[in-house]
Amino acid sequence: MFLCLATALVHVLLVFLHVAPPNPLSQQYSRQVDAWVFPLFEQNWRLFAPDPESVNRQISARTTHTTPDGTVRVSGWFDLTAVDSSAVRHNAFPSHTAQNMLRRAWSSYLENHATDDQSRSQRALMTQRYLTNIASDRVAAHRGGSFEAIQLRVVTVPITAPTPAGGPGVAPVARGAGDTRYLPWWKVEADSHGN
To answer: For residues 132 and 125, what is the distance between their CA atoms, to the nearest angstrom?
Structure first.
């Protein structure tokens, strides 16, 4: 019983130091606090203070497959975002995963990787694997077949400001005005995508 009580008190203290404003104690023990909090006890307050999206992202994936004669075949791009959108559209009770899984996986990836896409921490490696697994599972579910590697393409387009009531219209964002990011090819194990 003492061990349970002590563990609970340490947990509450570490989570408090994680969510509290920066202070000397939380800064001194930040490594230990982060090791305890991530990834299982991460605090996300967006429910109470939402941060609305300012961009639209289209995430697509393509795969490679090596044929028995050694030829490497690259598939066309498969729009993962469109699959999520169709699962939500006209659905009175869309699942949380259809609405947020891919989007949150990409947000976590961005938070943990620089523009060179190198995983420099265990958390960064975990978010890369998570994103790879989501993409691999969705491509395999819709296309079937086997593949050895997957690459993601993320097209980011700013959301235009709404037209003020009675004011002049805001010009729509021109096609191609967004940013396109190609992630590196990631190896995929055959059993990780249902083969």
So the answer is: 10
